[in-house]
Amino acid sequence: MQKAHDLKEYREEVGQALDNEFLRKAMDNFARAYPQGRAKAFAGMDAAALIAEIAEAKDESVSHMEELYQEFKKNAEAAGVKVHRARTAAEANEIIADIAREENCKNIVKSKSMTAEETLLNHHLEAEGLQVTETDLGEWIIQLRHEGPTHMVMPAIHLSRDQVAGLFSQVTGSNQPNEVEKLVKVARRELRQRYVDADMGISGANFCLADSGAIGLVTNEGNARLVTTLPRVHVALAGLEKLTPSLHDALRVLKALPRNATGQAITSYVTWIKGQSECKAAEDNKKSYHIVFLDNGRTAMSKDPLFKEVLRCIRCGACANVCPVYRMVGGHQYGHIYIGAIGLILTYFFHGRDKAKNLVKNCINCQACKAVCAAGIDLPRMIKEVLARIQDEEGHELESRLLSKAMSNRRFFHGLLRSARYAQKMFGTKTSADHKGKYQRHLPMLLSKEHGFREIPKLADTPFRDKFPKLREKVEHPRYVVGLFGGCAEDFLYPEHLESGMETFKGQRVDVRYPMSQTCCGLPLMMMGETTTERDVAKQNIRAFDPAELDYIICHCPSCASHLKGYPNLFKNDPEWHLLAQRFADKVIDYSSFVQEELEMGKEHFEQGGPRAAYHSPCHLCRGMGVHEAPRKLLGTGGYDYVEMKEEEVCCGFGGTYSVKFPRISSQILKTKLDHIEESGADLLVTDCPGCVMQIRGGLDKRGSKVKVRHMSEALAERKKPGGGHP
Amino acid sequence: MSTQDKDEMLRTFTAKAEAVSCVVEEVPSMAKAFDYVVDLCGKKEACKLLISGCEEALSKKAEGLCETKQAKLVAAPNLNKKDFGSLKKKCNDNGFVCIDEGMRDHLAGTDIGVALCQGGIADTGTVILDSDSEETRLATMISEIFVAVVPKSKLFANTYEAEDVVSKLIGKDPSYTAFITGASRTADIERVLALGVHGPLEMHVLLLDK
Ligand code: SF4
Ligand code: SF4
Asked: Ligand 2 pocket, A371 CB below 6 A?
């Protein structure tokens, strides 16, 4: 749960989580195990197609939520079910407390429901003097500890068996061993008695089937079956978005939900309940059955053109499982009640700006969540949109405003970058032995100790744009006419990447243009929630390049590339610009793909027998652009001995302004990356992104490592044979 | 469906069910299925020794529940009269109690719950069980071993193929239908997999030639 008042407090809490060694180890093990389990579960299936189908069907349901509700209500009521509707969380809790009063219930057993967590139902019922027992093992454990879940599927993932043993010893009044198998059996027997005593069972609902009025419950422990069988009253609490037309829709989701959540083909139990089923504890042998539908903003959300997508969520929890930040800080610091990427978003809508405002800043924009989302939600984008909304509501932060202001005028912005070069001289530079670049000794804005985990590079003496006219080759009969999109980091920090790129193009009959009016791609603006200026700079770039005369727009920075590819999304409500943005975006390609797939350069162009090279796959290349093979093949072509390292596609922790905002998390993520690099035994680490170069090179140099870091363009230029042109 | 397809489905079902720790056997007849149950009951230790955690100290109340336990008990509420009669006889011959109702008197646990299922889903190793009767629900939940009998003729390749059957089951009023795939499980403590958290500790599937 979020208690921090401001970013400073939030950072302190995050810091404590980072210091919790058990948590770190548990989360780390999980993060390593999950992708393999998921891949195995989806083996032989077209996961992407299934996800697309789910997204489409969910969108359809969400746009007919009200009709589905009416249909469900009619069918459920015909089967003797009482259907309630709550506008707010408080109302839902009151309805349920009223049911308990009217039905004269005292003891409640619950099976797991995130919706009940959302409304803080237990607190309400307990305050009414009712006894509530969570029966899902993880939920019971956190209930006993009076805390919220740290994962939507595994709520107690943050706790050790020792902690659970201590807790169970208190509950049973006798000493319990710290063996998992035995602790599970203790829960089995303790909770069995609770079911026997209970007169009301509360469950959630994974599906509410409109055409039959049945609900579907998905569990592994089977507790939902007992909760809905033994007590004489059953109350199911469901968010309106759980409404779905028919069984078929539910079966479709069921194919993805367990696979994505826990790597299971299906959970142990899936239960379908319709009407007042037999219950021998009830007077007339019939269960008294209520369904409470919770709105809590869902109807409004379903009408929001941007955010309605969020209602697709099937609560599989996968977006947390792959999140590098969640991996470092755990669920208590990565959500309020809902956890992970979706939690960052839902917190704002369900629990308010105050709980969400710090959280939404803690996204590195690595796209990992989007890549696994069972419902195909563009989570990173939604997170930034929430950030933008909060900024609009609360006033933009000073640094954010300044950045936005500066970037809205390219001349002014580039002027700033140029003058920053003189400013940094005052703070001195030092040269690294292994790396070409020079480092800032100090950067005024980065003086704090927390930034000491990596060296910070200094701005180049001459930006690429000033060098370009001299570097440009005259090409007769070009194979390709391309525009280079530099991007701030390449243009002003690492012009050598672009120069190396030009070097590799030599003799390949590539006619290169560098439109001078291009500016920042706008990603940093999105990161800070400055959407208005983000659109402005997008327009500037679209104007700067003429897609009609270019075959490709090449980026040496995949973060820029994937952001440029996303331009059409910025103009969803503006048909004219949408079209222009689409024409522009269609031409965008990353450097490695261009060289590998288009130029098709062969081994004959490069000196073979080079050193061992590991590859770090930038987030925005592998997930943002969907490029996986090209750079690895290219290393072989370029004469390197490619060695595989662990977790090549996991984020390095940079994330632009993120690493400035959350330096401790950034450095912790980086540490894992550096360990993998050094373990691989490579002499060289190659990557495709200036941000990753900065982060990883800075980290390795700080460690005094011998491993060198190169952008792909440099790695290729270094081994390119002179001449060897394309016929 | 060709014999080849049927064999393929049988193999898939078996592999998938075994992958979630089910014991899968083929049985030629109901009589053989009951022999299997009786044999299993004979081999297993009396209700919830050791594996259920009976040796662990509990709070007084939870301990109290266990005092209701008795001789080995088999529950089979959803069999037809004739089948139940023959199972009961076999049980009694071996000194086990066999019941088809009154599950609420045995909430501390029973040894074996037997149920005839309405179908099986091959690609997940799942059984489909009409659980409208409370006795059926309880028998298959509070037993330490759940024996599911599935006629081979009612195997489906996947959930979509089973959709019509499931739709019919769900369409009844009231209706309580379950997909069951392996024993009750949890990984809530340190992600260590443990079977038998609330429901059965073991699941056996008997594929019946019929
Ligand atoms: S984009 Fe990356 S950091 Fe942000 S929520 Fe998704 S997985 Fe986490
Ligand atoms: S947002 Fe996607 S990945 Fe996250 S819980 Fe929802 S469906 Fe699963």
From this structure: no
Name B175's bridge partners.
Answer: A274
- Is the Cα torsion angle B99, B100, B101, B104 positive or negative in sign? positive
Burial class (CB in 10 A: 0-12, 13-18, 19+), A146: exposed
| Separation between Cα atoms, residue B37 and residue B35, nearest integer Å | 5
- In whole angstroms, give the CA distance from residue A627 to residue A609: 26
DSSP E strands: which ranges in chain B?
Answer: 23-27, 73-75, 97-99, 110-116, 119-121, 126-130, 143-151, 155-156, 175-180, 185-186, 194-195, 202-208
Instruction: Please name the residue whose Cα sits nearest to atom 6 of ligand 2.
Output: A313
Query: Model ipTM?
Result: 0.92
Check A188 against B51: CB less than 8 A apart.
no
Question: Quick one: B47 exposed, middle or buried, by C-beta within 10 A (0-12, 13-18, 19+)?
Answer: buried
Using CA positions, which residue lies closest to atom 8 of ligand 2? A316
pLDDT (tens digit, 9 = 90+) per residue, A63-111? 999 999 999 999 999 999 999 999 999 999 999 999 999 999 999 999 9
Q: Tens digits of per-residue pLDDT, B89-146? A: 999 999 999 999 999 999 988 999 999 999 999 999 999 999 999 999 999 999 999 9
Number of the ligand 2 atom closest to the C-alpha atom of A260? 8
- B160-181 core/surface letters (b: 16 or more CB in 10 A; e: else): eebeebbbebbebbbbbbbbbb
Q: Check CB contact under 8 Å for A137 and B123.
A: no
Contact A586, A547 (CB under 8 A): yes
Q: Where are the beta strands (DSSP E) in A121-213?
A: 131-134, 200-203, 207-209
Q: Say if the Cβ atoms of A269 and B189 lie within 8 Å.
A: no
The strand pairing partners of B194, in sequence order, are: B186
Chain B residues inside the 8 Å CB shell of A268: 20, 180-185, 199
Tell which atom from ligand 1 comes closest to the C-alpha of A319: 7
Pick the residue of A23, A75, A220 with the most B CBs within 10 A to test the interface with B by mutation: A220
Give the whole-angstrom CA distance, residue A195 versus residue A201: 9
Q: Whose CA is closest to A388, among A426, A345, A350, A343?
A: A345
The partner residue sitting opposite A265, judged by closest CB among B16, B169, B184, is B16
* Token code pair at residue A118: 């959302």
CB contact under 8 A, B62 and A138: no
* SS3 state of residue A271: strand
Of B52, B185, B194, the CB nearest to A180: B194
